[in-house]
Amino acid sequence: MTSSYAAKRLGTWGVTRKEKTYVVPISYVSDGESIYGYSIDGMKLQFMQSNPEVCLQVDHIQNLSNWQSVIVWGTFEVLEGDAAVQAAQLLMQRGLALIASGQSFHRVGTIEQHRTDALHQHIAIYRIHITEKTGRFEETL
Fold first, then answer.
1. Is the separation of the CB atoms in 56 and 128 below 8 Å?
2. What is the pTM of this model?
3. Rounded Cα–Cα distance for residues 89 and 84 (Å)
4. With contact defined as beta carbons under 8 Å apart, do 16 and 22 qualify?
5. What structural domains does the chain harbor?
6. Rounded to whole angstroms, how far apart are CA atoms 8 and 30?
7. How does pLDDT run along the chain (141 residues), one tens digit per residue?
8. Of 15, 88, 71, the residue nearest 45 (C-alpha)
């Protein structure tokens, strides 16, 4: 994990389970080889755990004549141990250290069995290993 060139982004995940597609916006960090994120238990994790092949789409749009769009495909895995600690540190360095839980926020600290006070849900730190990517852009000078 090379954090020196990691960037914080907002993207849209597409995951499929039993012929049903689920699309959800997410915050993530990338080191160029993998994408890292976190989630509480819910539909997104259920879909990714049942079918680890996922897709992420990201846009950077200044205006209709200046934009970039990237699509990345990869394989999902929940991280544990040292790998989860390193990913959590990268997420926190890039400002993704808070997650919403009801009306309060909880800081992601150590990795061992996170539980939120309000929902008592497990926080999963995950990685998507990038297997393919494509992109387009338009830039008017």
1. yes
2. 0.72
3. 9
4. yes
5. 3-133 (2.30.110.10)
6. 7
7. 444 334 446 888 888 888 888 888 888 888 889 999 888 878 888 888 888 999 999 988 888 898 899 999 999 999 998 998 888 888 887 765 544 443 333 444 443 334 434 445 578 889 999 999 999 888 887
8. 15
